[in-house]
Amino acid sequence: MTSLEELRRINARCIHCRACQYAYSNEPDREGKDEEYTGMMLSCPGGNHYGWEGYFNSGRMWIARAFLEGELEPSQEMLEVIEACTTCGLCAEQCKNYIDTVDVIEELRAAIIDSGVEPLKRHKVIGDRVLDEEMRNPYHDPRSERTAWYDGEIDNQNAKIAYYVGCTGAYRQQGVAKHTASILKKLGYDFTVLSDEVCCGSPILRTGQKDVFKTVMNENLDLFKDFDMLVFSCAGCYRTFRVDYPKQSGKPLPFEVKHTLDLVWELITEGKIKIEKPYNKKVTWHDPCHTIRHIGLSIEKAILDESDNWLLDSRNATKAKEAWYERPRDVLRAITGIDFREMYRIKGDSFCCGAGGGVKTQFSEMALETAKERVKEAAATGAEVLMTSCPFCITNFSDAVKALKDEEKETGKDLSSVGSKLEIVELLEVLDELL
């Protein structure tokens, strides 16, 4: 398993240029609807919310360096600063020295906890729940209810494909789970759902509780080892299996992993399916950090890790990454009647929903304010629908829109320009209705 000490040389590449604090459209001549969405924008959720250098990635990289050099003693205060980060990865996207910022931050959290500092209160609670035999999920719901949403065959060991539902889909966003199962059936996949599935460990790893994470990782790897493919609807689960399991276990996955959108994209690009039923709405798309930017960065890293010449191969890495970022857009453009409108910050430069990295659990105000900022950016496009494909993003954006509607009622102000009228929609639900 990776440790902070192993990342010392990577962390040492940080020159504190602070480029990681910003996002840019990558279109020099592009102008926003107003001056608020144009040029370089401060785009680090933690730094934007708290305002202090230590909450930006640039500050966190130097905190990690001071910790490694023995210049900074671990403490609860230090952990609180480091945990107030969604680990969205936008900082890694901006870094021209290719620093694995998310890895450094997550390993710094783990190192602080390993030194004897207790996990933050709400983070410890979800860790305990995931280990509880009656739950095995962070939501405190009974494990017996994990597959209650599903009316198909459960625990079919003859199937070669398993749908890994994830805790949010199983307990909080059952609609997403039902639509995903329906899509898989419509596409002709023979799959099953397993009742013994446990939490993937994403929120546990993100918050530095690596011993707990290792336990659930090994359980899931053993449970699904005989399947050819695992299919996901949860962005966080997909990222955890695809990126973190091989990294933390030191072994390649024994099965192929795909998000449901990967399957749909493949069939569309191969000309095997067409989406002819119209969806006549103005839509903007939010890139989930886990399935878009994080996977794009992992694709880039894999190419550079094999490279003898970063100057030349970085171009190929960028092309491969950009091709990945285009996938959901290829699917959206294949939908008849859709009026697709991009936000200013998109793809690798996309602003986070604010829910990831344990932030929604421990820092709910920061999570909500970050979501409201992204909803405002979505509304600036003139879209009626903010669409994405991540249960956590759906939850946090829905909370933001509700907060804006409540504010409208209290103040009497029309907040439609900042997103109070936006409809938050999961792309998988739309695909199920249209296929």
Describe the structure in brief:
This protein is of the alpha/beta class and 435 residues long. The protein has 3 domains: 1-118, no CATH class; 130-260, Rossmann fold; 274-435, Glutathione S-transferase Yfyf (Class Pi), Chain A, domain 2, CATH 1.20.1050.
Characterize the structure shown.
With 435 residues, the protein is an alpha/beta fold. The protein has three domains: 1-118, no CATH class; 130-260, 3-Layer(aba) Sandwich (Rossmann fold), CATH 3.40.50; 274-435, Up-down Bundle (Glutathione S-transferase Yfyf (Class Pi), Chain A, domain 2), CATH 1.20.1050. Helix content is 49%, strand content 7%. The strands form three sheets. The chain has a four-stranded parallel beta sheet with strand order 4-3-5-6, with helices on both faces. Strands 8-7-9-10 form a four-stranded parallel beta sheet, with helices on both faces. Strands 1-2 form a two-stranded antiparallel sheet. The protein is globular, with a radius of gyration of 21 Å. It starts with 7 loop residues before the first helix and ends with a helix. The model has no long low-confidence stretch (mean pLDDT 95).
